[in-house]
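The instructor's notes for this session suggest beginning with a concrete chain rather than abstract definitions. Hand out the sequence below and ask the class to guess, before any prediction is shown, which regions might be ordered.
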Amino acid sequence: MGPAAPTPAVHRAAYQLGVLLARAGFVVLTGGRPVGVMDAAMAGAKTVPSSLTVGILPGTRDDGVSIHTDLAIFTGLGDARNAINALTPAAIVACGLESPGTVSEVALALKAHRPVVLLQASPGASAFFQAIAGSNPLYLADTPEDALRFIEGLELRNAG
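After discussion, reveal the predicted structure:
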């Protein structure tokens, strides 16, 4: 998860995270659009043979779909599709918290007791989510490798 207009550092982190997740055998699920973190993570994943990417899209037509999307799911829900983004995976990684959409996905995931990784989050965003997370699993990662180590420790490949 992440913003459509990330900083260059967050964009690079999302791409590298996509590569690492795909190499580790995880499905990469994003918002599926051809912009920002969504596109970067899926582009990274598609550098790995046999990777699988899933895009949860806001509309009902195929305009605005990343070319790196293997399975496009058209919800017709607009921004309400963020609930699907947050609740479908067994864990989420938020690459940068630079947009309200990403913040909503993290909040929904925490509310549902999903493990959340905040990758390269600002100190303010990290403090906010730590304050509201309660006992929910929340991990702060500086690098995509740190995020992957946390996710691998959860043993999620067969979880749902």
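Then share the key points. The chain has a mean pLDDT of 92. The two ends are 18 Å apart (CA to CA).
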